[in-house]
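Fig. S4 source data, part A: sequence.
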Amino acid sequence: MAAAEVQPDRTAECRYSGTAELLGIPLGASGVNTVSTQVRLFQGIQGSRMDVEWIPAGVYVVDRLTRTRYGAKVDLLGREEAVRAAKLPVPRTVGPDAAGPLAETLLAEALPGVPVAWLDGADPGTPVPAYVVEEDRWAALSGGTDTTGVGTGIAAALGAELYADAAGIMTVAPVPTLDDPVVWRIPYGLALVQPAEQESAEGLVNLWAISGDGGDGSASVGPVYIWDDDPASITYAGPDPVADPLAPQREGLTGVRIRAERYASGLITTIGQAYDVGRARLADSLGIQASLSITSVCNPALEPGDVVEVEVRPGEWQRHLIDSCPYSLGSATQSCTTRTTTRRVT
């Protein structure tokens, strides 16, 4: 291999994507092709007086192949692409059953032999009622909406997300939050370029209404309401924006603004499950407005969703969640885009 670029990105449907230049390899049915080939990448790290440690950098299907004089250049997409492409030939009723067996069966049909990992906080034993999958296997597994606007997806109904990790394992994990353990600290001097801070209200939601409603007239769950109840947060929604929306005005909190969204899914069957989904969606929608772009020493062990602490100015540390962390194999540097929540100045 001559060169490769890896682009881990939590906001993309394929968490890992990239490109690679392959030298001296066979092409076609018996070699590299866009139908059956899978490519596994690693980044090697070696310090003085130590063996090379190989860090997984994704397992990919070949999305596009361009022949070159010495081999081929390939565009790579993570294993999610194989699931997305494996649409159901006919509509199918799925369930009732536990989330684990249902998801693992749908994944095994598209990715035979690929393991599925359930991380703590994503319960594979959660009951899932019977529902009809028209054709979109990925939407049935991960999340989306049907023609009526009702949410779909086993992972989404658990307050979780589905992705292929750096080792190519299909993983169901809870939505990461800034309360997760810090995996790396980036001192001010380790950043090779001054961190660039940005703020945006795009995608910001500080109040979610969650219900278990299949849209077919059957009994529904909820709605339950989850909001930002931290008075120190700049996205504070008030003490009770549902039952007492005028409370912030009485308390002189003129800066409080409500940005509400609804989410309904026929796969949400209990109040507790609805609260789990609401907390996950709130955690994902509050940290969008403050982001950081930083170029630092390359750490290929970082993955999207990891929490890092960054010294943005001497003595000022901020906790951030990584959205994307692309790098070139063999490079000494890495650019990361992160998100965090903004707290009021007191």
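Fig. S4 source data, part B ends here. The helical segments are 80-85, 99-110, 137-141, 154-157, 247-250, 271-286.
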